[in-house]
Design goal:
Strand content: 35-45%
Number of helices: 4
Strand order of the largest sheet: 1-3-5-7-9-11-13-18-17
Distance between the termini: 37 Å
Radius of gyration: 26 Å
Number of strands: 38
């Protein structure tokens, strides 16, 4: 195995040594305080640490993955900073640190600090969390992966009396304590933790976050959804307070959720539903229904591209579903929103074992909705028109007229614009324009389908000088939409949401020489 030697701690106070290439490294610590910094799309391995110095800090962030697997730490006091960057005003996060099995034989237990969003800490299959002397700042969007722990179905949190931090115990379905993790910071409850399989026989731990901070109305005031526990009372639309029966949890990495419109959150801007609701930005899953004018409407059916939009997968997605004894309507950020109803879909929850341990395996039955649920028709059209007007959109009348434009081409990053170290496929976009000549100035609200499945909803508003020169109004009718890797023009369908009118397609794949921004 070829290794590279790097030296840390020889510069002035505050200086650091940055790794710029993937590979295996031997670290030599000199001086009083040495910092190693790894960032970007790199895969590195730390194999040995030798010293004449005292303190070694290892910073991993910005998409980098490091296997920290020295055979010994010798006498070096090591500090692991996951998500940190030397000198940064804010921690960038997005680091992956794998603690290798060689650490099982070491007696110098380093502390670890989380910083910034989206970090992954992985313990090798022979390690327990006790290999670290301290874990600090674990937070929503971070993940702890215990490769050597399987069969965990629940988490029990014991808060330190009168201060932050505590102990998280992972239990099996038969209440066997599998392992304990001590967190030095944070104030949690057991219900906040999501315990799922890591897909390789281990266990992933996350702090559940319904886009952390979403507030649910309770008799004692609004409470963050992540702070709810089974048995807590929530206010319902019929004026009563009902206890929480269960909290279903599911989580998806940004890479897994990318392009999957059935997973990506729908974001409601403040006041987008009228009457001052919601009071703050509200994010829900696409199928989650809002109560409007006495009917339930899935959030995805309300998207208008301005005040109600579907987000992209920029960060980890964590959903918490509140279940009561029966299907009800509660208030999230002041907006009337449904509770979970078992529509033969309970298996989607990553904590299903917790439900079955409490209530047993339930037999599928038809869902009993509290009121009518609609996804199309004149009532939905009237509601969408009213919400569009609130957002400043002037939708065309029921006679939408012809749809002009083209699905023109696929643009794909070339090898000149993709980093050779990138672990992801080159990004592609579909490009075109769409206009309704009978309604000039009104952008077309559309959805894009890939092999018949909706992958994007939005408005055609990009300025196209060539289209303007051709006499199509202001030319602000273009679109450029990310598409799945390998997508062909012939696989895509662009249709107007209002009447499902289909935009013609040139169906001629094209690769553009894109410049990196």
């Amino acid at each position: 195995m070829s290794t590279t030697t790097v030296t840390v701690g020889t510069g002035t106070l505050g200086s650091f040594t940055q790794i710029t290439a993937s590979g295996t490294y031997d670290v030599v610590v000199q001086g009083f305080s040495g910092t190693l910094f790894t960032t970007g799309s790199l895969d590195t391995t730390i194999l040995t640490i030798t010293e004449s110095g005292f303190l070694f800090t290892d910073d991993v962030s910005g998409g980098a993955t490091e296997l920290f697997n020295p055979t010994t730490l010798n006498s070096v006091l090591s500090v692991l900073d996951l998500g940190y960057a030397p000198g940064a005003s804010t921690e960038p996060g997005d680091g992956t640190l794998i603690l290798g099995n060689n650490l099982a034989n070491d007696t110098f237990n380093p502390p670890l600090n989380f910083g910034g969003p989206g970090n992954d800490l992985v313990f090798g299959s022979s390690l327990t969390p006790a290999i670290l002397s301290q874990i600090s700042n674990f937070a929503p969007t971070d993940t702890i992966d215990l490769q050597g722990i399987s069969g965990a179905t629940s988490a029990v949190w014991t808060q330190n009396p009168g201060t932050t931090g505590g102990t998280l115990s992972l239990d099996s379905a038969t209440n066997v304590d599998l392992t304990d993790i001590t967190l030095a910071t944070g104030t949690f409850t057991s219900s906040l933790f999501s315990i799922t399989s890591d897909g390789s026989g281990g266990t992933d731990i996350t702090v559940a976050c319904y886009h952390s901070g979403t507030r649910i109305a309770t008799p004692s005031g609004e409470t963050n959804v992540e702070s709810l526990a089974i048995g807590d009372l929530v206010l319902t639309a019929d004026g009563t307070a009902q206890p929480v029966k269960w909290l279903g949890r599911r989580s998806y990495s940004e890479r897994f959720a990318a392009g999957k419109t059935h997973l990506l959150p729908i974001r409601f801007a403040p006041f987008s539903l009228g009457n001052g609701r919601p009071r703050r930005t509200l994010r829900v899953s696409p199928a989650h229904a809002m109560l409007i004018d006495g009917v339930l409407i899935p959030a995805a059916a309300l998207v208008n591209g301005v005040s109600i939009v579907q987000e992209t997968a920029d960060t980890r997605i964590d959903y918490i579903h509140v279940e009561l004894a029966r299907h009800s309507v509660i208030f999230a950020e002041g907006a009337a929103s449904e509770t979970y109803v078992d529509d033969n879909n309970r298996a989607m929850f990553h904590n299903l074992a917790d439900y079955e341990s409490r209530y047993g395996v339930t037999r599928p039955e038809p869902a009993a909705y509290i009121t009518t649920r609609i996804e199309s028709g004149p009532v939905l059209h009237a509601i969408r028109t009213r919400l569009a007007a609130l957002a400043g959109i002037a939708p065309p009348p029921a006679d939408h007229g012809p749809l002009h434009g083209w699905l023109e081409c696929i643009e794909t990053e070339t090898s000149e614009t993709v980093s050779p170290d990138s672990r992801t496929a080159p990004q592609s976009w579909v490009v075109g324009w769409a206009a309704a000549p009978d309604h000039p100035g009104v952008p077309v609200c559309f959805e894009l389908l890939h092999h018949g499945r909706v992958i994007h909803r939005g408005l055609a508003t990009i300025h196209r000088p060539d289209v303007e020169d051709a006499g199509h109004g202001s030319g602000r009718c273009g679109f450029r939409i990310p598409v799945p890797p390998g997508a062909r023009l012939a696989d895509l369908t662009f249709r107007r949401i209002a009447d499902h009118a289909i935009l013609p397609s040139l169906a001629i794949p094209h690769t553009a020489n894109l410049r990196a921004a």
